[in-house]
Write a structure and sequence with these properties.
Strand order of the largest sheet: 7-15-5-6-13-11-12-9-8-14
Number of strands: 15
CATH architecture: Beta Barrel
GO molecular function, one term: peptidyl-prolyl cis-trans isomerase activity
Shape: globular
Largest sheet: 10 strands, antiparallel
Keywords: Isomerase, Rotamase, Signal
Organism: Corynebacterium pygosceleis
Strand content: 25-35%
Protein name: Peptidyl-prolyl cis-trans isomerase
Distance between the termini: 39 Å
Function: PPIases accelerate the folding of proteins. It catalyzes the cis-trans isomerization of proline imidic peptide bonds in oligopeptides.
Length: about 220
């Protein structure tokens, strides 16, 4: 059975084969941080990338990053929290700038128990990733148990420390344990688009499956 990254994880991803040299602040993806603090991140090569992409830079500038998913059903603007989850935001921004998410589908929607749209796997099957992984961030290990409320943007995973490229957007409050890195929010205009997607549900009216209408990310912009 293929191991799938999911917000209801029970399978552990394959262990990393070695730790990569992750680059420096001279990388074209590393912003000129000036006086802005930066986090040091470790990205571990796992192999088997669903789509070829380089490793993110090791230095992650902190602060807010604006990103927009341009989809076939409308734009979904996001606000990424680089203060609480700098290494996650660094990785996701890098993947977006590299075109990793372009022309990919959001492969999963849930309409019972939890209420999320999951995206980020170029294979469209829920088992693909970028060929590297990185550690969990907020709220994991913080002692906090925040609500995965409507509008929260978080990472899907296949167990502790297996973050890659897949993420989910909550279109309603979802009762989940604090095991999934929260790294931003969906802007109000994006929530309108998510609501329209959610109304159509999953294929065949299933509580969990592919969206009834294909949701394709055509391009992602990062400001």
């Amino acid at each position: 059975m293929k191991k799938t990254r999911t917000v209801l994880s029970g399978l552990l991803a394959a262990t990393a084969v070695f730790t990569a040299a992750c680059g420096t602040s001279d990388s074209p993806d590393a912003a000129d941080t000036g006086d802005v603090s930066a986090a040091s991140c470790e990205y571990t090569v796992t192999g088997g990338a669903a789509k070829d992409v380089n490793l993110p830079p090791a230095e992650a500038p902190q602060g807010t990053v604006s990103m927009t998913l341009e989809t076939n059903v409308g734009d979904i603007p996001l606000s990424l929290d680089g203060d609480r989850a700098p290494c996650t935001v660094n990785a996701i921004s890098h993947l977006a700038r590299s075109g990793y998410y372009d022309d990919t589908v959001c492969h999963r929607i849930t309409t019972a128990g939890i209420y999320v749209l999951q995206c980020g796997d170029p294979t469209g099957r829920g088992s693909g990733g970028p060929g590297f992984s990185y550690a969990d961030e907020y709220p994991v290990g913080s002692g906090d148990s925040p609500t995965y409320a409507a509008g929260v943007l978080a990472m899907a995973n296949a167990g502790p420390g297996t973050n890659g490229s897949q993420f989910f957007m909550n279109y309603r409050d979802s009762p989940l344990p604090p095991s999934y890195t929260m790294f931003g929010t969906v802007e109000p205009d994006g929530m309108k688009v998510l609501g329209e997607i959610a109304e159509k549900g999953a294929v065949g009216g299933a509580p969990d499956g592919a969206p009834a209408e294909e949701i394709r990310i055509e391009h992602v912009t990062v400001d």
